[in-house]
Design goal:
12 helices, two-stranded antiparallel ribbon, mainly alpha, two-stranded antiparallel sheet, 9% strand, 6 strands
Amino acid sequence: MLKNAIYFLFILVCIPLMVGCGGCSGNSKPSDDGLAAVTDETEVPLQLGENVMSDVIQNISSPIEMANMVKVSGVEFSQKILNNPDVISKYETSFKKALNLGVFSADLGYINIFDKNNIVVPYLMAAKTLSNGINVGQFFDFETLRKAAENASNLDALMEMSISSFNKIDAYLRDQNRSDVSTLIITGAWIEGMYLSTMVQKDVNKKEMADRIAEQKHVVEILEIVLGNYKNQPNFPALVEGVQELNQAYGAVRITTELSEPKRIENNGTLLVIQDEISTAHYSQEDIDKIMDIIINLRTKIVE
């Protein structure tokens, strides 16, 4: 279903963001509401190493992973923790529309992890409206998506259409040098995934969920770097400050890695030895409580 499509959204939008620019590269400047519009100006691009980019790509799917962990934990689906698709008219700027397109992307992943096809249409339509608002709606065939979402037998087609749409959005944003839009979509999706996990964790208080929240330390560090590249654009300062506050709270979390026991597998007659790294997050209950409170505050400001 859409959960796989949303996973691809994170990766496809993240790639041009990481290798592209900050502010952005070639031929862009802020529009009146703070997002990029095409010009002939060129700014120095933000460069992140391949290892950093790889780490972000591997971790940016966390909203879906966390939604799946919520389901596995046995907690029942709760629509009340999702953003309300009926209030999108209050998102008047492109800045808010891009952020909340990310929010609804994560919400769609959560909905589909729980197979709640009966409520998916309003969220698809909200995504359509927000996409139109930032001039990427032309890449969605929402009527076909809506019909496929209502018919469980068309789930494969739904996933393929969604992935195709996000591929087109990725190419378009890259061509238009609108990496700030990509940044906002990614940020909105990640914060919403963290918010959903936080709301569940406050109810169930499971170590596995707390561990996953704590393990997002490195993603927050990268988000702060990328968002900081736009801190002088309209609308961005408050968001940058919020992520900086979150990163400071994550400073109390310590991540250690160690090698797992070697695994021996046979591949076409050749014996291979594989050894993975195991990461462990070290934190106190006070640390995780502070992080979750900041996440709730950040998300509240995004959707208000």
